[in-house]
Amino acid sequence: AGEGSGPVPGDGAGPPAPERVLFPPTFSVSEIKNKQRRHFMFLRWKQQQRKEKLALKKKRRKEREALGDKAPPKAVPKTIENQRVYDETTVDPNDEEVAFDEATDEFAPYFNRQTVPKILITTSDRPRGRTVRFCEQLATVIPNSHVYYRRGLALKRIIPQCIARDFTDLIVINEDRKIPNGLVLSHLPDGPTAHFRMSSVRLRKEIKRKGKEPTEHVPEVILNNFTTRLGHSIGRMFAALFPHDPQFIGRQVATFHNQRDYIFFRFHRYIFKSEKKVGIQELGPRFTLKLRSLQKGTFDSKFGEYEWIHKRREMDTSRRKFHL
């Protein structure tokens, strides 16, 4: 060995360095033809990346601790939500035009306490067991709601009967291959009507660590992230399903959380463990909604006038563009 060369393994100069996976700069695991070998090398590469990321994280934490108060503020991680494209229809709570529209829209009688919510929940024609159970559980979440199973009766014939019997809203649960896959919400007597795609339906027995059956108390309602004019209208539709004055003694909460235009519904009961700690139990059911269209007036699939229709190829050009 020449001058400046490192210790040669086996010459007694010291223990051999720990083996470290070294990949060429242009290395690609996909170039390995053997499937088992390719999978093994991929796992080693992922493990090495995790170690390097953890070491970098520890190094940065030590640097912050050494600087103390002089440490620079933590960088805010980039997410799809905080990189959202600005929507010009975002609602300003102090906007006079928005206040005027709210005072004169179809939901004004409810918010002025002139009407009491009365909901009819029905299904597509001849529903199967899972859809039937979902409707029954949904009726325990929404106070003053009644379940009716259709037997070939058209919605256009149901709506006049609902109006005559003082129902304020109609909910239709559609199914495909015995699984609930759609929800139509129509506000009576003058609309509007919203069509949602439904997914990720979980009944009470399918939820882990669920609480006891819900009581008949009127729940609180939480609406999150309905920020645009369209989202504001959808949020008001959901709010109009529940009576005004929640019974806090029941400690039940119905949450409609909008995230990336997906509306997640959860039904919880909260429990006070101490003065500072609060625990929650999910009661179920749970489901996810995706708005497909908003139609003026009551349900009319042929001649209805649509305020908004989701067009995937035109509207979903950017992952950071949201409509609700």
TrEMBL record:
The keyword rRNA processing applies. One of its GO terms (molecular function) is rRNA primary transcript binding. Keywords: Ribosome biogenesis, rRNA processing. It comes from the Eukaryota. Gene3D superfamilies: Probable brix-domain ribosomal biogenesis protein (3.40.50.10480). Residues 1-13 have a biased composition (Gly residues). Transmembrane segments: none annotated. Residues 117-300 form the Brix domain. GO terms for biological process: maturation of 5.8S rRNA; maturation of LSU-rRNA. Its main location: nucleus. Residues 1-22, 49-75 are annotated as: Disordered. Residues 63-72 have a biased composition (Basic and acidic residues). One of its GO terms (cellular component) is nucleolus. It is found in: Nucleus, Nucleolus. May be required for ribosome biogenesis. This is Ribosome production factor 1.
